[in-house]
Amino acid sequence: MATSPSSPAPLLTLRRAAKSFGGVRALRGVDFDLAAGEVHALLGENGAGKSTLIKIITGAHRPDAGEICVAGRTVDGLTPARAQSLGIACIYQQPALFPDLTVAENIGLRLDPPGAGRRVDWRARRARAAALLARTGASLDPEAEVRELSMPEQQLVEIACAIGAGARIVVMDEPTASLTAREQERLFAVVRELRAAGVGIIYISHRLEEIFALADRVTVLRDGESVGTHAVRDITEAGLIKLMVGREVAQLYPPAESAPGATVLAVRGLGCAAAGVRDVSFEVRAGEVFGLAGLVGAGRTELARVLFGLTPADDGEIRLDGERITPQSPRAAVARGIAYVPEDRRRHGVVLEMPIAENMTMAVHPRLFPGGWLRPRAEKDLALGFIRDLAVKCAGPGAPGGSLSGGNQQKVSLARWLATKPMLLILDEPTQGVDVGAKSEIHRLIRRLAKGGLAVIMISSDLPEVLGMSDRIGVMRGGTLTAVLPGGTGAPAVMAAALGQGETQGAA
Amino acid sequence: MSAPRPPAAWKAALLRHETLLLAVLVAEWLLFYHFGTTTNRRGLVVGFGTLDRQFDILRHSCEIGLLALALTPIILTAGIDLSVGSLLGLCAIVFGKLWHDGGLSIPAAAALTLLAGALGGGLNAGLITRLRLPPLIVTLGTYSLFRGLAEAITHGAVTYTDFPASFLFLGQERWLGLPTQAWLFLLVAAGVWLLVHSTTFGRAFRVIGFSPEGARYAGLPVGRCLALVYVLAGLISALAGLIYTARLGQAKADAGTGYELFAITAVVLGGTSIFGGRGSVTGTLLGVAAIAVLKNGLACLPVVIRMNAAEEMSGLLTGVLLLAALTGSMLPKILSPLLRRAQSG
Amino acid sequence: MKRYFREISVTLALGLVLLGLAVFAPAFYQPQPLLSLVTREAPTLVIACGMALVIICRQIDISVGSQFSVCSVAAGLLAAHGWPLPLVVVAAAVIGAGLGAVNGVLVAGLRLPSIVVTLATMVTLRQGLNLLRQGEFVNLPDGVQWFGLSQTAGQWTLVGAALAVLVACGLAMRHLAAGRWVYAVGTDAEAARLAGIRPQLVTFLVFVLLGALTGLAAMMNIVQSPQVQPLAGAGLELKVIAAVVVGGVSISGGRGNVWGAFAGLLLLACVAPALTHLRIEAYWEKAIQGAIILLAVVADGLRSRPGKGGRG
What we know:
The structure holds three protein chains of three kinds.
Chain A: E1 12-21, E2 24-34, E3 39-43, H1 50-57, E4 65-70, E5 73-75, H2 80-85, E6 88-91, H3 103-111, H4 122-136, H5 151-164, E7 169-173, H6 181-196, E8 200-204, H7 208-214, E9 217-222, E10 225-231, H8 237-245, E11 263-272, E12 277-285, E13 289-294, H9 300-307, E14 315-320, E15 323-325, H10 330-336, E16 338-341, H11 345-349, H12 356-360, H13 365-368, H14 376-389, H15 406-418, E17 424-428, H16 436-451, E18 455-459, H17 463-469, E19 472-477, E20 480-486, H18 491-499
Parallel strand pairs in A: 3-8, 3-9, 6-7, 7-8, 13-18, 13-19, 16-17, 17-18
Antiparallel strand pairs in A: 1-2, 1-4, 4-5, 9-10, 11-12, 11-14, 14-15, 19-20
Chain B: H1 9-36, E1 37-39, E2 45-47, H2 51-76, H3 84-100, H4 106-130, H5 135-153, H6 165-172, E3 174-175, E4 178-179, H7 180-198, H8 200-210, H9 212-217, H10 222-248, H11 259-269, H12 281-300, H13 302-307, H14 310-344
Antiparallel strand pairs in B: 1-2, 3-4
Helix pairs in contact in B: 1-12, 2-7, 2-8, 2-10, 2-11, 2-12, 3-4, 3-5, 3-10, 4-5, 4-10, 6-10, 7-8, 11-12, 11-14, 12-14
Chain C: H1 5-24, H2 31-56, H3 64-80, H4 85-109, H5 114-133, E1 138-139, H6 151-175, H7 177-187, H8 189-194, H9 199-222, E2 227-228, H10 236-246, H11 258-277, H12 285-303
Antiparallel strand pairs in C: 1-2
């Protein structure tokens, strides 16, 4: 364990922090410390526990165990308000700004002194906003409406707020994700300035070159544990990657049982400006599980939404079973034989208030209920069939979706789409929030479906899952498909492709 | 792992609401029967308990009932339509004008009136589905527009009367034992019931109400469903306008004023959630019955007759009833976190 | 100035209408009738200020007409009982605030949709009033009408008072922290909560404020005639909402201001006399009002369609 660069008490210390959600242990006894005047990078693949750690630090979550010390004093019961008053600020990836108000007002609402009857000094607000924005290097008009700003610009406003709040501990969650090279440089300058002023910065990023350029120390998280804190000058990129992914593949994944068949999906140069997807080309064959890997924000869900017609493509072509299609809506996509099991199960996958049977038949009304008349018998039969096939643990087809566990809800969501008898099945994070037992059930299910002739695209942030389940692995980064790797590729190679290691620096 | 729960728990809950409402309805009816029925000097039973009165209740409840039926699918989709009462008035006027000034036959005028209603509903539908405007403000605007058009067409003064007896039969006579319009009402009620409970459209309405995004992801025809419910409401409002005119024997621009409150109250009373997704046509019918009995029962109470305040009392009580029904539906949600906190200490 | 596009366009439209009237119906500009028209609209302006706040907060209140009637009758009765006028003014505002508080509790406390709540309170209040008063007028004692001043002086007083309320609201919404909170809550209540604002309290208070302003407006109305008409508030809510929506306040909250509402109100107020002078019958007024609401909403809808910038 490397020592911190300066001797006085660390700004922030976490000891044995632990947090579980339901049955899932997101953090298991993590030690972490942040010194004044340092940039401490936090690295780890999706689901390693980074965001949970951050939420504990900012007070959004209460840890189940462990203690937090700020400036040497133990803090009990940290809340967001308390964290703010202790000088902790966080720049999230999704800024929580008011779209109809100006930049100056947004900053003002956060930073103005409290009091309902206080007079609002617009000139001071504008001046302060301009000053703070200048420090972030952003060329934004304080009078611009936030609604008109792009995402990276909104992030800069958030950073300006943090600077203005005089935070001593600043957490940045992938701040450069969509910045141009020049904006990145300016951001780095801001970070260095803050560091020189004694602020401690926790910097989450997947861009290894940034970590080496900016950070003093780096902590790697894996499966909810800290696997090492090193001074940046004491470690290499390869070493970091090894720390991130190195583990025994403890789970066995069901192997492919037959060779893939004909090409079902062929995509060439697919792009959709609104979704941020560009120039994607790949093929998926019947009986094949095509894994789609990449970091959060790489564009995998966006690609799925383009294929499914939620955000229709404006470039390139999609060929399904040899025929060119242009799905303009989910309805059209379903009619063609594409099914998409969405990532957000609770909002888009299952209607919690409605019975399981109704959820399962929701996408097949034209076929199951010809003429528009409901047929409860047929619906019940279908539901019972899937309940049996997928081993859904429930009180019956009439039980509401909300009464099921996460894994079983996922099965219902899956059943809904299997009922449409699709040619192509796109699964978006199929085992997210699902316990271990149900996970392997779902894996076996996916294999069985593929064996039955379905072409499956599986989007997953769980690297072992992608590695273990896929016949081939497509890796996305920055909205485009950067590599298609054969199944059995090792984790480091996939992770490297996802991180863009080996690519020259400078985003578009 | 989920613990086994009684099957169709949500269905049981809904049924409970309707049975409660039925109990309230029966209690209400008995109350008014007891206090509102007397024997007059000639030894005849008068007041609430007479068959005539009961048929009157049935007659009066047809128009509001139709509007409530029209609103049920809309509220299921988490929408609202404030213009149904005004459209009723406009259609009554259109009918009167077509027949009286246009010289059309009654059936032709009626058919065109229904078309007018559908167009009115279509205006709402177009603005809501095509332009994605909030139903609240759109129907607030058409609430004013339709009533305004009715006033404009009649120059604020004209009333159409002298309809042929064959037409008035619809509103004032009986057929096969029941008031004529009751048969129409039952027909529409059956139709709406089938739509909501037995068709894929009804299923889609609920999904849209629970989760409009979820409905889109599931490939349901959201635009088509929304257009359907608003056009249907327009059509039914037109029918209600015809019945209203037949019942009163005249078509005036203020026909149906204030009916939307009663209709919405009936729907909410019947257990349909104002937030969408949950509800039933049976509940709406019971709600209509409850309100109709309330309105007419009050008019039979001696104290109300003395004060000559039947309309005011019924309006007042309906308003209070709506607030009580809304509060009742929200209290469990508000109280449960408080209770939980109290339990955990 | 793109931010105020809506308000500017309404003002331009108003200018055009006024110009048109000057050319085609110069009789409109006779001082006494014009003053009377403006005085008649003064109470509506006061209510419109409150309504703008409520709608910016992403709520709506269609019970203001009934609140207006109740406050009018209550104030009239108090005056008839000999209460001194200043006290009656305060009482009217307090009663209005109380009525607004009922709406506020149900909407902010129980999280019920404001449209249905205010629909219910609208009818309850109106019918309750009818029940109690049976449509009876209230005769006001001497000295109440025009505050005991001459008609012209009284009219100018009322116009001045309404303008004062307008300016106070306009300034407060721009320069008072609490005013900005209304915008924040109307835009995104959750983000507001995270920023330390209390959305439920803000929501409750805007309903109370609207009620108080309605009470004030009722007072401003009853001093204009020797009797109080209990039916005075009929249709008022629609008129106020139309004015506010036309003036650029968005029904989805977070946008607009009272200056736009003022311009919208003047525009709509000119419609009736414009109709008269154009020889169009007055019974077209309601239809035109509805059409204007729809046009304003459609314009708003079309404007926010091409979504610029990214949000997630």
